[in-house]
Amino acid sequence: MISEGIVPLFVAIPLAGAFLIALLKRIKGISDTFGILASAGTFALSILFLLKMEAGQRVIYNIGNWGGFNEVLGKIVGIQLAVDGLTIFMLLIVNFVAFIVALYSVNYMTRYTQKWQFYCLFLLMLAGMNGVLITGDMFNLFVFIEIASLASYALVAFGTEKRELEASFKYAVMGGMASLLILMGVIFLYSYTGTLNMADMTGVLAGSQQPALMYLIFGLLLTGFGLKAAVVPFHAWLPDAHPSAPAPISAMLSGVLIKALGVYVIARVFFTIFGFPHQISIILMTLGAISMGVGALVALRQWDMKRLLAYSSISQVGYIMLGLGIGTPLGIMGALFHLFNHSIFKSLLFLDSGAVEYAAGTRNMKEMGGLSRKLPVTSGSTLVGAMSLAGIPPFAGFWSKLIIIIALVEANHMKLAAWAVLISIITIAYIVKVTRFAFLGALKDRFANIKEVPVLMRISLIVLALVCIFGGLLLIPEVRDTFLSPAVRVLISGTGGGAGS
Amino acid sequence: MSKEHDRGMSIIVKTVTRLTVGLILLYGIYIILHGHLTPGGGFAGGVIVALSFINLDLAFGGSISAKIFSKGSTAVVEALGAVMFLSLALIGMKYGGFFDNFLHPDGNAGQLVSAGIIPLENIAISLKVSAGLFGIFLTLIVLQKFESEKK
Q: CA B129 to CA B131: how far, in whole Å?
């Protein structure tokens, strides 16, 4: 058993860290310390939850002690926080990546001025993401999405050069549009069901005929969250925004933000609240297949290392959407496992691109070459991340792609399975380009004197690379039962299948 | 004529501003303190308080209000408001829950001092909003001066 009293701390700790950094910014080293402590604290809390939660348990927390009114009035009044298997799965990923990124930023962010503003915004973004994951209330979800998004707009513009400001403006306009659509969806949903609590909503919707209004709500929410997740027709902001941010933030945005705000919320809303209607399955699979193709093909043509990785993110989110869209237990497991893997290897690759920029001062792969001799840790970890992204057998990325493809074959989607295999071949092509042009070949003269990155950056790269190598072990039945299966079970029970995984 | 008429708007605007700016500030504080009884609250009241400072700058030109309330101190007050808000919520965890109203759980309708932590939270929000909004205004006019000097 676990005391539900600590659930709000997932939001309160990063918020307290952010505000204290803003208050005590003059003290030297305070922003580094608080940034690392706050993200380590939330990471420790999520491990505690993973170990202490019983199987199938759903922890409910009433904010403001409003729980007593629920029995008196016969309906849920205040805001509820809810933690279940899927939430813990996502909390662990988000807070782990955030902790690693906070470690990495200590040295990396010395390239910029006003470091305290960086950590302040970073912790606000973390608070927003954790809030999205733990909330059980539809409007509260919108509020936390806005907190995380607003912090990320500012972080994308952190360099305040012309290109960064332009990317941030584009991102803010598209993100604002997404928020508007989400808010309208929530309003219509509230007017139809008469409640904002997600569990209540599920009950009301399960016992009702679905009128035409529901299709409007589907459209609004799918477009809104699709914009946040950057699936293909809504992806235009991502290739500008993610490369423009400082490298640790690119890792956070590509690694966890588009998943917490986009993929997780789509899964939560369409699986557990709407019960996964058949149309949504088709839409998710179509969008996923298109994203995979477009992202991978455009990535082939890029020479900017971070821009290539950003397009690759679009492609890999397509895989996750495709897996979710199948709707079978195996498909969902593949999607969630790929979500985990993508968070790890894409953060790793973005941090690597930052390390190259830190050491060599360029992101253009045409100018690089032979860096593996000068940057052994960076090039080694890039190779591991690249192999995991490409799906080379012992690495974690292989297993998740394999599961998705098997699930497609099992569900009799042969053409999509062939498409997924084809795209993973293209993935190998563009990621080999990174390792070939950046790290292999002859060393150029201008790089003769560069040094390997500082020790904290190296540690974070090595930790992420190790997770990439041993991530496949999560599929061992004993490990799977504590980490992956509870998350899959939450989504399965939403589809009404209950077939068990 | 004295030097103060070199800058800013006409003497009519200045006189009216001089008469009303204190009232605007007081009205903002009233809105903040009565947030739990009447429409309004920390956010609306905080905006009015910030506007009273901005009003001074608009009428008299230059940066009169920045002498009263500098950009550095807006940042500190803003952070203080946020920390105060969060710590009130966290103290509640000792008494029963996050945001638990531990001071006065059963308020009397219409009475000013009976709502427990709600007025305190309103004050915290008003500090954050007024300092934040005024800080944004100061940043914008600094930016504008910078631009005009470049030309």
A: 6
Whether residue B98 and residue A20 make contact (CB cut-off 8 A), yes or no, is no
B27-37 pLDDT, tens digit per residue, is: 999 999 988 88
Residue A83, H or E segment: strand A80-83
| Dist. CA A224–CA A174, nearest whole Å | 10
Question: Among residues A405, A486, A394, A421, which one has the least CA distance to residue A86?
Answer: A486
| A235-247 residue pLDDT tens | 889 998 988 899 9
**Mutation for A interface: B71, B86, B87, B98, most A CBs within 10 A:** B98
Q: What is the pLDDT of residues B26-68, one digit of tens each?
A: 999 999 998 888 888 889 999 999 999 888 888 887 667 777 7
Q: Do A65 and B96 touch (CB under 8 A)?
A: yes
Look up the pTM and report it: 0.92
Return left, alpha or beta for A198; rule: phi > 0 is left, psi -120 to 50 is alpha, else beta: alpha
ipTM of the complex: 0.87
Shortest alpha-carbon distance between residue A183 and chain B (Å)? 21
Give, in order, the Cα–Cα distances in Å from B45 to each of A283, A487, B127: 46, 44, 10
Kindly report the nearest CA distance between residue A144 and chain B, in angstroms.
16
